[in-house]
Amino acid sequence: MTTFQDARAFLLKHRTDYDTAVRDFRWPDPVPFNWALDWFDELAKAPDSRDRAALWIVDAASGNETKLSFAELSRRSNQVANFLRAQGLKRGDHLLLLLGNVVPLWETMLAAMKLGVVVIPATTLLTPDELRDRLERGRARAVVATQDQVAKFAGLGSEKLVRIVVGATQAHDGWLPFEDAATAGEAFTPDGPTNADDPMLLYFTSGTTAKPKLVRHSQRSYPVGHLSTMYWIGLQPGDIHLNISSPGWAKHAWSCFFAPWNGVAAVHPGAARELQGEPA
């Protein structure tokens, strides 16, 4: 049986031998698999990777830098997972994620995967009408957004919608501060196994010529599928991968999440200009 770890190790071993890689590579078997728990959290424990830089963000406005290791992100995402669980979110629920390239985006993505919560990534450029459509057709149970997005949700969503705001400088009625997650427990226990074909991501297409369609991805389609992206980019442990994709689009998941961390490289996204309403 081929595991995710086996497939990844094979590609790294033959990273300069294309013919062998094409001929002998085998996709991992679809056994129960949770990438955040079975891969990322294991990196956070391993002596040769736990202290490596996993995320490096530079804020365009202030020039401030944030660097987090695999161990730090594992711990922080555990806290966010426990925080979301305390708000009633459970396996199979849908969460609308409306953030720019800020640390809570990565923390929430990992946390949701650990819980089995399906993430609906969305661009911060959406209008209130577009958000209404995503809340309704996406059957969102919760939303995580920055303070500058809060006003768009006036009159949207039901009373049962869990609303979480990131980086608020003032209280917003009906919204919980994301920063409260810092008080949650640092150890996370899943409620059971995650099947490889369980849903993980729900993307809306661009809607260029018609109403946006929903595209569902499983717990293996992107995490495992983008071993191929890791191979083509040539990422290796300790690399720094700069990518300027904006959150809300599938390319962001490929190159600012799965491919770099499959390679145990540091994610270095474009400067966080989304907070000023300008796409990176």
Feature tags:
single chain, 280 residues, alpha/beta, Rossmann fold, five-stranded parallel β-sheet, two-stranded antiparallel sheet, disordered C terminus
CATH class: Alpha Beta
CA(first)-CA(last) distance? 41 Å
Strand line-up in the sheet with most strands? 4-3-5-6-7
Indicate the proportion of strand residues: 15-25%
Taken in chain order, the helices and strands follow as HHHEEHEHEHEEEEEHHEHE
CA-atom Rg in angstroms: 18 Å
Total count of strands:
11
Number of helices: 9
What is the CATH third-level topology name?
A: Rossmann fold
Instruction: Provide the CATH architecture.
Output: 3-Layer(aba) Sandwich
Structural class: alpha/beta
Task: Describe this structure in a few short sentences.
The protein is α/β, with parallel strands linked by helices. Helices cover 32% and strands 19% of the residues.
